[in-house]
């Protein structure tokens, strides 16, 4: 029975998601600033230094100036202990980005006010919805010309299918950005372009009834349109409902400017009130309560070769219940052994701190001698249960892999299997053959380069990739299906995964529809099971 309720209940663990360039990094920096984690925003994650490439082998990262890694940031604010799961923010994001969301209890979605909902936000959002985790929206860059506010909200509702509830409302944008109206407090918070990196400076609150002061501060025209908009908003938008927010059915919306540090602390304060303490998680023995249950965790990410000389791997675990103590033994359930977790650490940007204890809600990285797989459960030695698996996310790019030197078969299979175990790629086979023909599926095309690079550099195996035209993969949910009798479109391909589960590859959505139509009762899923 755990007794660490206070420590656990002050934890808040969230992922921050956005389309590249919406301002995720800038907003994260400002959060850290409020948490006192750094003195000057930008010193942790300035563009040049802190796309925090932690590994040597990731030459690709350096060449292209992007990061395929993600990290965890921890800071305290107002009595809360906050864990931010940062996700890689570039076009070629990988499955890891999705998996990170599996370890979070809520998500902060950053949207560029001049762009609205963008492609990558949509994908990540789907995963949040699948998990029913609360989603908080920060509409950023209000200091630049923004889209119409009602249109922005409409966009979120239509594109993402979630109701919105603005907590504050912007007054103007760009050069004419005057501040925000806080609906609950019925007051205007005036915009002050505080210097980058300093705390929110001179923002003042003016009650909406103080017409004279407001007119002098924001101008007659803006006040008039604000009054109209508030009226419209009160009539049209969804009511604030914490239950709906916590069930992921309603997203509170905030407006601000991360760069000039306006609206960030307001967001943080509201967010912390609305978001949840570490959530219980489903295991085969039922829901595991974070406070009542002793230590348990699951692996959601494996990062290979953080240090090439040692070929080391780090397994990232989300602690789901109780307290982790470095001196105690734990059971790695899937591995069937009791062990001590080696070199447990907190990974902050490119810094690593060795830990002696951590609590439910925290993320720890442990040295992995090659025994952990994504989704594995770790619990106390006297227990034996497994957390519900992390789904396999549908890759969108496929290629046939061929070895250049067929004599190196063994290294090739070993290398590709290991890389797949880390979750960077997925491996499939032709339906009727074995490992002779390997098809690789990835979420972002960069992973193809990573695979090629790593096989050459770590396993001394050269490969050729032949791109395949498929973009959609579907797992077949029906257990008793006769695959030979399944009739699809001519461009459909039957394959299987390493556990012999049958899958279908399609070139377009239309083929999926046709196949469903031609095979009554067929159930196809976008997510696989580990
Ligand atoms: P990301 O992590 O979501 O990819 O975005 P990031 O924070 O790196 O921001 C992308 C660009 O947008 C950066 O400019 C950043 O300064 C700018 N930005 C972020 N928030 C705001 C905001 O509230 N207002 C305005 N006007 N700009 C914002 P950059 O020129 O690409 O990089 P940098 O040279 O400024 O670092």
Describe the structure.
- With 530 residues, the protein is α+β, with helices and mostly antiparallel strands.
- The strands form seven sheets. Strands 18-17-23-14-15-22-19-20 form an eight-stranded antiparallel beta sheet. An eight-stranded antiparallel beta sheet has the order 28-25-27-26-30-31-29-32, covered by helices on one side.
- Strand 19 (342-348) and strand 20 form a beta hairpin.
- The two termini are 30 Å apart.
- Guanosine-5',3'-tetraphosphate is lined by residues 18, 20-26, 47, 89, 140-141, 143-144, 257-259.
Quick structural gist:
By secondary structure, this protein is of the alpha+beta class. It contains 14 helices and 33 strands. The strands form seven sheets. It has an eight-stranded antiparallel sheet.
How is the secondary structure organized here?
Elements: H1 5-9, E1 11-18, H2 24-34, H3 47-50, H4 59-64, E2 72-77, E3 80-86, H5 95-102, E4 106-112, H6 119-131, E5 135-140, H7 149-160, E6 163-166, E7 168-171, E8 179-182, E9 187-190, E10 205-207, H8 211-218, H9 220-236, H10 242-246, E11 250-255, H11 264-274, E12 281-283, E13 286-288, E14 296-304, E15 313-321, E16 323-325, E17 330-332, E18 337-339, E19 342-348, E20 351-354, E21 357-359, E22 363-368, E23 377-379, E24 392-393, E25 397-403, H12 409-421, E26 426-430, E27 438-442, H13 446-459, E28 463-468, E29 472-476, E30 493-497, E31 502-506, H14 509-518, E32 524-525, E33 527-528
Parallel strand pairs: 1-3, 1-4, 4-5, 5-11, 6-11
Antiparallel strand pairs: 2-3, 7-8, 8-9, 9-10, 12-13, 14-15, 14-23, 15-22, 16-21, 17-18, 17-23, 19-20, 19-22, 24-33, 25-27, 25-28, 26-27, 26-30, 29-31, 29-32, 30-31
Helix pairs in contact: 5-6, 8-9, 12-13
Guanosine-5',3'-tetraphosphate binds next to helix 2.
